[in-house]
Amino acid sequence: MRGLMVKKLIEEAVEEAEKFGSLSSMYFLVKKIWAEYGKLSREPIRDYDFTVDDIILFSLHRSKLERIPFFVSSFLTWYYLSNHFFAQDPLFYFRWDKRIFVYSPRVDAHLLYLARTGYVKISKTYCLTEKGKEESSVKLSSLGERHYKEIDSVLNNVYNSKKLRDLRKIVKDTIFFR
Fold it and tell me: From what superkingdom does this record's organism come (predicted)?
């Protein structure tokens, strides 16, 4: 069937507003559909190997993170997964002159939803609950050892970075030099 990916993304846009309460995510999905309509209307529907929720769980699987490192780790996780699997697009955007320089309203909305459903605990930092750790372990085991180690290695750099400029460098190196 033709045009099914467009339909799937429209359904996702509606879900972003209704289930996750994110009009920003809905807006960015509609913009993506508008910009890529020709390509998406020829693309058959596919199930995602990994969703935005999975990306969040992977990003937090090792330790708790503050807001900026969390968005960096989410971006890097998605970037890796999207190069090896069919991953749902979190719709990241960059604002290099801002403190939170990589951001996704979709990840933000899904993070709040995961907190409401008991997978994530939010205070000054974000961390997985026991329920979230179990789900993360199940999803990570589906990756295979090689992919798991590569994601873990990428995220290790984020966990060990203490300064904002180091996080910016990691993201820029990933985008422009890989």
Answer: Archaea
Among 80, 59, 90, smallest CA distance to 147 is for: 80
Segments of 3-157 assigned E as strands: 93-94, 102-103, 120-122, 126-128
| pTM for this model (two decimals) | 0.91
The rounded distance, in Å, linking the Cα atoms of 152 and 158 is 10
Report residue 1's pLDDT band, with 50, 70 and 90 as the boundaries.
Answer: very low
User: Cβ(75)–Cβ(56) under 8 Å?
Assistant: no
pLDDT tens column, 20-78: 999 999 999 999 999 999 999 888 999 999 999 999 999 999 889 999 999 999 999 99
What is the per-residue pLDDT across 132-157, written as a single tens digit (0 to 9) for each? 999 999 999 899 899 999 999 989 99
50 close to 87: Cβ distance less than 8 angstroms: yes
∠ at Cα 64 (62, 68), nearest 5°? 115
- Of 85, 78, 129, 128, the residue nearest 103 (C-alpha): 78
Q: In this structure, are residues 59 and 155 in contact, taking their beta carbons and an 8 Å threshold?
A: yes
Task: Report the Cα 122 to chain-centroid distance in Å.
Answer: 17
